[in-house]
Amino acid sequence: MAVKEELTKLGLHFIIVDLGEVEIMETISTEQLEELRIALRTSGLELMDDKRAVLIEKIKNVITEMVHHTDELPKMNYSDFISEKLQYDYTYLSNIFSEVKGITIQQFIIIHKIERAKELLLYDELNLTEISYKLHYSSVAHLSNQFKKVTGLSPSHYKQLKDKKRSPIEDIGNSNDLN
Questions:
Q1: In this structure, what DSSP letter does residue 27 have?
Q2: CB within 8 A of 50, min separation 6: which ones?
Q3: Do 32 and 89 have their domain in common?
Q4: Which of 50, 110, 130, 158 has its CA 20 to 30 A from that of 8?
Q5: C-alpha–C-alpha distance, residues 17 and 6, integer Å
Q6: Helices 90-101 and 51-68 sit at what angle, rounded to 10 degrees?
Q7: What values do phi and psi take at 22, rounded to 5?
Q8: Are 147 and 158 in contact (CB under 8 A)?
Q9: Does residue 178 lie within any of the structural domains?
Q10: Is 100 in contact with 93 (CB distance < 8 Å)?
Q11: Which residue numbers in the chain have pLDDT < 70?
């Protein structure tokens, strides 16, 4: 809504392409671009015009959607899924992501899967076997090993903790630290 309002104020015609993505129909002047950037910033939004930054955000959004907001993870390889979804070669996506974020796409996915496992452990509706199946781990042992590597705790120890610390989705994988 804020973006639409600011674009309209500037007299620009646009199409909402996707969540967080707008296509402007005319050439935008440097002054209009700066006005838009300032107006969006006051609304708590940021204008991303760097194609690499935009692509990184799209990769992060696909992974977040895939791990946190769908009941069933894709049956295909994650690399194929991400590549198909974004219509780019996976090697290209992977290289840009690693260069910019300092971790691989695979590491980013693992961090998100472990955060999802924490969430499912908190709900206490599924046992560890069901969680490992739901998150496409080959075994409970594989999930447990990754869980311990990322959190420093076993899933059962994590479940026993009184202060169960989870990270907001938008903060997951934002540092080079995997803990």
A1: P
A2: none
A3: no
A4: 50
A5: 17
A6: 100
A7: -130, 140
A8: yes
A9: no
A10: no
A11: 16-21, 48-50, 162-168, 174-179
For 116-167, write each residue's pLDDT tens digit.
999 999 888 899 999 999 998 999 999 999 999 999 999 989 988 856 666 6
Report yes or no on 142 lying in a domain: yes
Q: At 127, phi and psi to the nearest 5? A: -85, 175
Other beta carbons within 10 angstroms of residue 65's beta carbon come to 11
- Cβ atoms within 10 Å of 63's Cβ, excluding its own: 23
CB 46 within 8 A of CB 59: no
Tokens of 173: 């994988």
Question: What burial letters (b/e) apply to 112-142, b meaning 16+ CB within 10 Å?
Answer: bbbbbbbebbeeeeeebeebbebbebeebee
Domain match, 131 and 64 both: yes
